[in-house]
Design goal:
Layout: H1 12-23, H2 27-39, E1 46-51, H3 55-66, E2 70-75, H4 83-91, E3 97-98, H5 105-116, E4 122-125, H6 129-136, E5 147-150, H7 153-164, E6 172-174, H8 179-202, E7 210-214, H9 218-229, E8 233-237, H10 241-249, E9 253-254, H11 257-263, E10 266-269, H12 279-284, E11 290-293, H13 303-309, E12 310-317, E13 320-325, E14 330-334, H14 340-343, H15 350-370, E15 378-380, H16 383-396, H17 406-413
Parallel strand pairs: 1-2, 1-4, 2-3, 4-5, 5-6, 6-15, 7-8, 7-10, 8-9, 10-11, 11-14
Antiparallel strand pairs: 12-13, 13-14
Helix pairs in contact: 1-3, 1-4, 2-3, 2-15, 3-15, 5-6, 8-9, 8-15, 15-16
Binding site for NAD(+): 152-154, 186, 215-222, 238, 294-296, 341, 348
Cofactor: NAD(+)
Pathway: Amino-acid biosynthesis; L-homocysteine biosynthesis; L-homocysteine from S-adenosyl-L-homocysteine: step 1/1
């Protein structure tokens, strides 16, 4: 058996069935896997991936292996691993996996080191932790890396900061910025899976509640849309004037977090920044207020300040911590402030991850073929890859669209024809 560190290898059979269930809604990735198996575009390459270890990720790993890559996988979040999936990838797919749901900080980074033991040629990251470790603690491995990909907004922000400072040592494609990723994964995936996580953790009625969404990027838009659809009165908090204006035009109340803290029943952060729900907010919240995070890292809620303000805390339900404040109120943190859609639920539905992971697979192939032409910076997903994935997804859904006529194409390329 390949090297691994998973919770229980005997869970492999259950994981295999769930991986197959997810695959039914991942037709685009399936078609890529079939082509990869014939062409082997990743043959001879070692790939270290730091991703949420879910059923959808398992299908991506199997596609990359079919393409000839030697794949190593670790978790990109301590609470996002599905232990049966990790076991199945080891036993049934022969992929080294280092991931345990609920692993502590030390184990999390040890697992990243395990994934880097592959001496990768390509990195695949979700949040840029693997890239960060590679650039700080394992710099001796950088000479063997030809390129990488990044899955999420937070990771892209970190990588662009590295590139701007001139410390990024190899080219990376920002998969998050593909239209077929953020317009669907961030909006529809995060929207649905965040509500799923909140409901599984709390079993609370959304209808009639005051639901506060911090951040009106594509993830925030998706969460606000779903909360509104379930009957909540939605409040959006923002720092960007354009997004604040957009949220207002979309029919939501917009106000500062300090004001929203007084009236909200349920709070969700989706900004990618620190201290979005801060010390003063906890004092102002209603007795019984619930708050959680849907951004990548557990820094959006000031948990350390919350602990200092509390006279006691206890786990009252799975993934629900009750904090008793000194002012007599009790407020509730979900999922330890980590990604609630993966902490207490199963992450995005496979149909939407189909497109995100199709981008990952095709960008890995693109990097393998084109890395010599690329500089040490963050690149957008090539337009052709984005368009091809959209076409494949439409075909899988049985949806047809129009095709431009020669006259229409000529008109769009011309400037002479006016009114």
């Amino acid at each position: 058996m390949v090297k691994h560190d998973v919770r229980d290898i005997s869970l492999a059979a259950k994981g295999r069935l769930r991986i197959e269930w997810a695959a039914r809604e991942m037709a685009v990735l399936k078609s890529i896997k079939e082509r990869f198996a014939k062409e082997k575009p990743l043959k001879g390459l070692r790939l270290s991936a730091c991703l949420h270890v879910t059923t959808e990720t398992a299908n991506l790993m199997e596609a990359l292996k079919a393409g000839g890559a030697e794949v190593f996988l670790c978790a990109s979040n301590p609470l996002s691993t599905q232990d049966d999936v990790a076991a199945s990838l080891v036993r049934n797919s022969g992929i080294p996996v280092f991931a345990i749901k609920g692993e502590d900080h030390k184990t999390y980074y040890r697992h990243i080191m395990n994934a880097l033991s592959a001496k990768p040629n390509i990195t695949m990251d979700d949040g840029a932790d693997l890239v960060s470790v590679l650039h700080t603690k394992k710099q001796d491995l950088l000479k063997g890396v030809i390129g990488g990909t990044e899955e999420t907004t937070t990771g892209v922000i970190r990588l662009r900061a590295m590139a701007e400072k001139g410390v990024l040592k190899y080219p990376i494609i920002a998969v998050n910025d593909a239209y077929t990723k953020y317009l669907f994964d961030n909006r529809y995936g995060t929207g649905q899976s965040t509500m799923d996580g909140i409901l599984r953790a709390t079993n609370r009625l959304i209808a009639g509640s005051v639901f506060v969404v911090a951040g009106y990027g594509w993830c925030g838009k998706g969460i606000a849309m779903r909360a509104k659809g379930m009957g909540a009165r939605v409040i959006v908090t923002e720092v960007n004037p354009l997004r604040g204006l957009e949220a207002t035009m979309d029919g939501f109340d917009v106000m500062p977090m300090r004001d929203a803290a007084r009236v909200g029943d349920i709070f969700v952060t989706a900004t990618g920044d620190i201290d979005v729900i801060f010390k003063d907010c906890f004092r102002l919240m209603k007795d019984g207020a619930i708050f959680c995070n849907s951004g990548h890292f557990n820094v959006e809620i000031s948990i350390d300040e919350l602990k200092k303000m509390s006279k006691s805390r206890r786990v009252i339900r799975d993934f629900v911590e009750e904090y008793a404040l000194r002012n007599g109120k009790k407020i509730y943190l979900l999922g330890e402030g980590r990604l609630i859609n993966l902490a207490s639920a199963e992450g995005h539905p496979s149909a939407v991850m189909d497109m995100s992971f199709a981008n990952q697979a095709l960008c890995a192939e693109y990097m393998a073929k084109n890395y010599k032409k690329l500089q040490k910076k963050v690149y957008s997903v090539p337009e052709k890859i984005d368009a091809d994935i959209a076409r494949l997804k439409l075909r899988a859904m049985g949806t047809k669209i129009d095709v431009l006529t020669p006259a229409q194409k000529k008109y769009l390329r011309s400037w002479e024809m006016g009114t």
